[in-house]
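Board notes (copied after class):
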Amino acid sequence: MINYGNMAELFFPTRCAGCGRYSGRPLCLECTASLPLIRGPVCSLCGKPTLYDVEDCLECRGRIRYLDATVALAVYEEPLRSMIHKLKYRNGWRLAMPLGAMAAVRLAPMLGGDEPVVTYVPMYRRNRKARGYDHAEELARGVARALGLKVETLLGRTRPCKAQSGLTHEDRRVNVLGAFQERATAAHVREAVLVDDVLTTGYTLRECAGALKKAGVERVIACVLARDLLGEPTRRHGTG
């Protein structure tokens, strides 16, 4: 039997999204090993590394609402920064499966007894059509597949928003205010995993979690690839 996967790799070899070398996989072993993983104590509400485990930290206290917890795979630094940029803007959807699976390992201990539903921060429909895919949805599929869970679209965007990168904290808050609406399918969900790429200020995730709670979801856990540790955002690629 002809192995078409091997033939495709022969004629169109896969480059690693981290180092750019031909590796036969979206992420080579060296770049996977060099990811700036978050280890040790964290703030359970926003996923930020801390000196000791806390329920909320000074950075997120009073700002990140509606979320019950956040799990972040790594710090928003290289080589993960370049990987996320390729995932979002350079047709790097194949990265979603390996990165989503890695995030799922970090997420698994946080899940409750009820089988959660994995969902995601949706793109505006016009932007999704132009790009050809929704990177957060692809990440959600990677997370769900690794955990044997189902993915559902529980949220929709009510309007387009400016890119969050480059905006101040207050501008980010206003930019996404009321931009998400729960779908009818959210009414039957008790626990939801809300997937996105980067958490910076948390306002995007807060708006999404608020819409899910409005629909009756009892527990919302955010699962992101990266936690941006900078305070006032400048020219960044983070969405939230």
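Comment from the instructor: Residues 1-12, 232-237 have pLDDT under 50 and may be disordered. Strands lie at 69-75, 117-120, 155-157, 180-182, 191-199, 219-227.
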